[in-house]
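[audit] Reproducing an earlier prediction to check determinism. Same input, same settings, fresh worker. If the tokens differ from the archived copy the diff job will pick it up downstream; this log only records the rerun itself.
[audit] input (236 residues):
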Amino acid sequence: MKASFDFFKGEVLLINKPLHWTSFDVVNKIKKLLGKSIPPSQPVKLRVGHAGTLDPLASGLLVICTGALTKQIEKFQEAEKEYTGTFFMGATTSSYDLETQPENFSDTGLLSEAIINNCAKKLTGDQMQVPPAHSAMKVEGQRAYSRARKGQQVELKARPVTIYNFDITGIELPLVHFRIVCSKGTYIRSIANDFGKLAATGAYLYSLCRTRIGQFRIEQAINIEELEELLISPQE
């Protein structure tokens, strides 16, 4: 049976975003799915939005709000976030992740568990963080990534963020696995880049999954296919 929803009054949908999808891809897909389940006679346009962007190369929890609950998006955006992922040590990229090609390769032979844990400790707490040039931040009315992809120089100002927890969960050099709990507006890609500088080897973000936004956890999320099954009744 089709699940019972009131999308105009408002629903919070917890979606496990697929790798390579943008957050807007998910929103647009859900709009199309809802368009099939809402009567054409409905005079009011349904609002759909997400509470916090995930990069295309990241997977994990995306909070989608519909109808009247889109007014609460800012509240969800303010909540702390939790991520798990992996840094690649011994190289850098201009995007701080795998959107661009690795370069500046260096030896990781002198990296020790103590050095790695000390880097995480130094990046815990209140920080002034510079967003990546390949980000959605606006510079003179343009998205920073639009300029960066054209090879233009992008200068972004440091912003205050808080890293509440930064745990190293595994070391398999050149890979370092982590868990991070942080404030709104924190770029894990920038943490990867800063981590590499502290380690004196360079580093970039190799993989990332958002596992929590405030009270919502990845275990509660469903994928797009599961949502489609909930919204659309099977053919008789």
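[audit] rerun output stored. Observation attached for the diff report: The mean pLDDT is 88.
[audit] end
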